[in-house]
Design a protein that fits this description.
The protein is mostly beta strands and 121 residues long. The protein contains no helices and ten strands. 0% of the residues lie in helices and 44% in strands. The radius of gyration is 13 Å and the shape is globular. The N and C termini lie far apart (34 Å).
Amino acid sequence: QLVESGGRSVQPGGSLRLSCAASGFMFRFYVMSWVRRAPGKGPEWVSGINDSGEKTSYADSVKGRFTISRDNAMKMLYLEMNSLKPEDTAIYYCARDPSATGIGVPPAEFWGEGTRVTVSS
């Protein structure tokens, strides 16, 4: 099970930290990702991180603004989001990545329930 939190409304240029609590599987052995779905659009891969947390990858749209991290002891995944833009408005999902690549949208069955982020003035 994956449970996201931390989403809320924020002004452009603001920051947020999303969290994802994992349970029911061996979190430390899995590549994890963040995926988002903007209103009226399909899912978009945002970022991925390998099992140890040493390797990360980002979509071009968030590179340099977002940082993914994990705490395997606490079974937590994080997404630090800075310099937020209106186009970052979406529901954000953490996901287990069965492909183990950390890139691309995992199947929806591996997503959490999501947390809503709204960037608006």
